[in-house]
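Input chain follows. Return structure tokens only.
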Amino acid sequence: MEQAEKIDILKRLVEINSVNGNELAISKYLAGKLKEHGIDSKIDSFDDNRANLVAEIGSGSNNQVLAFEGHQDTVALGDESKWEHEPLKFTVDGDKAYGRGTADMKSGLAAQLIALIELTESNTPISGKIRFIATAGEEYGTPGANRLNADGIAKDVTAMVVGEPTGGQVIFAHSGSLNYQVKSFGKAVHSSTPEQGVNAINGIVQYVNAELHLFDDVEQDEYLGPVKHSVTLIKGGDQVNIIPDYAEIYGNIRPTLKFPNEQVIDRIKSTIAKINQSGDFRLEFSLIHNFHPVETQPDDEFVKLVDAAAENNFTDREVKLSIINGATDASVFIQSNPNMPTVILGPDAWDKAHQVDEFTTLTSYFETIATYEEIAKKFFN
């Protein structure tokens, strides 16, 4: 495939608005492009204009399955007046390609699509299967990955490459992400007689103070480090002269394999139970999102294969093995296949994702395509 066509594929993907929704339009485009090159695919439509897409190539003469996985949605455009380049117009300036999703992660998705097409058209022998998985809603709630995981899409996967933007760096581990809410219930009275009420804010304050040191004694993960945690939203009270009967906070925690999600939840619940015994207010815990940590040993044979392929093709930079504290769809798929070697590898650039004037570089985009193809060839040889 000529470079101009590769750029055009990325352009078309970027110019489809898929802000945490409307993935069906992306899936239809991907399916059409695959069909042009003789590759069948299946679109899993759900809700209002949401969809996953799955395609496979290979003879299937053995049971090895290499998955290339990515998401079709993007985060919101934000304040468009702050963009120098229109967010839904693909704009190339030198080596930089601007637009919402250019980095996260339509360049990675396009690279996976093109790798499948070029492997097929070059008649590269694939003794097992390469499975291309394009999901809906990774940016909020992972509804697409949840649906596919429930259908067993990853149960037989031998190894997975997630195409998030890593700037060519090979990510062998990432933390989980757990979002939660704590509600505090009290009794409202006039502020002139506070002793007759129960101030719900006091319950929240006790939890927030406890949360500061909630994981101080937790042993650090060998690769992911400490459990990172924050209270990120707070609300309480309606009027200055009324003792509030309700308050709430939201928090985010980044679990590790050393201290996984279940232990995090147990610790929060235990802390809330102790606080509830100390006053007349009542705290309640609610789990909102629960994404698990992903970790493959850096000396795993698949990690070494991917690292070698990246080093061979990302010739304009030093390639290193690394970790991130963000979560990916792999947090979902690892639940049904916990021993699945998983790496995250994609083009530029993680620090440009979700930003005004988001961009990738065409150099890293082409290098990613070549890297994916080398991974596939080496994996099945």
